[in-house]
Amino acid sequence: MMDWWLDSLLVLGLLWLAWQAVSAPRVFRSVVMFIVFGLFMSLCWARLAAPDLALAEAAIGAGLTGALLLSAYRALLARHEQRLPEPRVSRPLAGLIAVLCALAFGVLAWVLLTVPGVETPAGREALARMDDLAVDNPVTGVLLVFRAYDTLMELGVLLLALLGARVVAEPLRASGPGPWQRPGLREPVLVAPLLALLVPLIVLMAGYLLWAGTSAPGGAFQAGAVLAALGVLLRLTGRVRPTMNSSFHERALLVLGLAVFTVAGALGFGFEGYMLSYPAGWSYPIILVVESALMLSIALTLALLFSGSGGLRGGE
Amino acid sequence: MDTALLLVAVFLMLNLLTGLVRVWRGPTPADRMLAAQLFGTTTVAVLLILAEAMNLPALRDVALLFVLLATLVSVAFVRLPRRAEERE
Amino acid sequence: MNVAAVVAWSLIAVGSGFFLAGTVGLLRFPGVFSRLHALTKADNVGLGLLVLGLAILAGSPWTALKLAVIWALALLAGTVSCHLIARYALREQGGRERAEP
């Protein structure tokens, strides 16, 4: 009974926040509503007993995306100086799109509810075969063993996204410390101690998530997102500044994940006969190496997407 | 015990949703931001309660992640130039 | 119920009461600064009491340690965020002389 109450509150809150995020008359209110929406999503994943997703949503939705939207808002303000122009939406068009979306959603829901159940859904098959694997976390098992191709392609997509962003973006000054650099304004006193405490802790957390990812919720993506959030924090406080071009090391790091994964997959081709199978007995260390490389690539990619630049360098 | 824990979670959620009024009303951006930022604390509380009620220790890791990244949004917020943003 | 459970549940109940106090402060206090004050202090104390109660319920020392670390980090986050937002609001309102509570 009580869980019905909790779940209804979550659902209602989610719906209301989503509506507010899209329809609030001022952009800033929408942004804040969206950030809170990310918090709610993470709670929903937790409630659905999906800690891996809750971890990812916490790092990306509530952290990275929030900071990104706020920086974008700041860039918008810089461009329009004082007031943002009122968004002008044609009412009939908006209504038409809303109706079409509702129809599409209705059709999907009907299909989902009326399609006959399958004897052995893929998820159960995978769960049944978990014992053959060296990893205990079923999510990692699916990501890196059963559906490794998907993960490989996703990495490629991420790299492509970064390349695409590089083509159109310029270093986002709004992603760095602004007002603090004006003469006469010093950085707030607590920022330096905060960083001194947080940087090692976040690195530790990322390492833990990576290591624990094979047997408990965690994994390369969550660890990479946490490291990216650290990069965002360093960028926002001015400890790291953007550079026009990527250095050789940065480019190597960006490609590392894809490269290592492909090599590991090719190894399988040599040993077991098909791509992305791991040589028997070696799968655990190989998965760990692949996940580490993935974590580094994902972290750098996301951090560069935030700063809008080719590279990041230490120093003021 | 589970029901009692879930009751506490429901209570905290109601707190959260009521606090959203401050986000909705403002009036200044700082008001909205402080409400949003400190929702993090309530979310952490709910996560810890769910970890106990649903017997999912991994949710404590999620709570840990939340507190580690909690200041990120505040730091991003105070980058905003002061006079030049909108007031309601 | 044994003593430990009674203690744990009282802590959880009082902690939730503090959360309620924080929300009331958020909605009813007259200005940014008093709201910040209400929210940071009340919510963090509430979280601390809640953590204490949950640690007793959980029963394992490692879990208690993890919960304590989470609370300590929440204090850190709350302190710095409050500091940053308060400074921001202070400048927004034109400095100490002209600021309202």
UniProtKB/TrEMBL annotation, chain B:
Enumerate the InterPro entries for this protein.
MrpF/PhaF-like (IPR007208)
A single Gene Ontology CC term:
plasma membrane
Q: Which chain regions cross the lipid bilayer?
A: 6-24, 36-56, 62-80
| Coiled coil spans | none
The way it spans or sits in the membrane comes to: Multi-pass membrane protein
Q: Which UniProt keywords apply?
A: Cell membrane, Membrane, Transmembrane, Transmembrane helix, Transport
Q: Where is the protein found, in the record's own terms?
A: Cell membrane
**Pfam families assigned:** MrpF_PhaF
Molecular functions per Gene Ontology: sodium:proton antiporter activity
Q: Which family does it belong to?
A: Belongs to the CPA3 antiporters (TC 2.A.63) subunit F family.
Q: What is this protein called?
A: Multisubunit sodium/proton antiporter MrpF subunit
Automatic annotation (TrEMBL), chain C:
Protein known as? Multisubunit sodium/proton antiporter MrpG subunit
Q: Which UniProt keywords apply?
A: Membrane, Transmembrane, Transmembrane helix
InterPro entries linked:
PhaG_MnhG_YufB
Domain of life, source organism = Bacteria
A Gene Ontology molecular function term for this protein is: sodium:proton antiporter activity
Q: Which residues cross the membrane?
A: 6-30, 42-62, 68-90
Show the Pfam families listed in the entry. Answer: PhaG_MnhG_YufB (PF03334)
Instruction: Please name the source species.
Output: Alkalispirillum mobile
